[in-house]
Design brief:
The protein is mostly helical. It has 6 helices and no strands. It is globular.
Length: 96
């Protein structure tokens, strides 16, 4: 587990979003697709950073390029305006 997630959840360390973002960014910039996904989520939700959908999309795209299906779904939700469309398209529910 990435150290950043421990700070996000307060598992074994005090809850600290500033430290969480520091460690998530560090791992994300070193091509950790899980950290890229979580950093995207932080920007999408405004957790520990100002809410920024463009920055969220940037990190989701990197994570998706690294093989994260969850990141592809979130990215589609941001770009298509519907999280459900991303779920349907990437998890086999859409048949058109």
């Amino acid at each position: 587990m990435n150290l950043g997630l421990l700070y996000v959840k307060g598992q074994g360390v005090p809850l600290d979003y500033t430290k969480a973002i520091f460690w998530l960014r560090n791992a994300a910039e070193n091509n950790d697709s899980n950290a890229q996904y979580n950093l995207g989520w932080a920007y999408e939700s405004g957790t520990g950073v100002p809410k920024d959908t463009q920055e969220a999309a940037k990190w989701y795209r990197k994570a998706a390029d690294g093989g994260s299906r969850e990141a592809r779904v979130r990215l589609d939700g941001l770009t298509d305006g519907s999280l459900w469309w991303g779920v349907f398209r990437h998890f086999g529910f859409a048949h058109w």
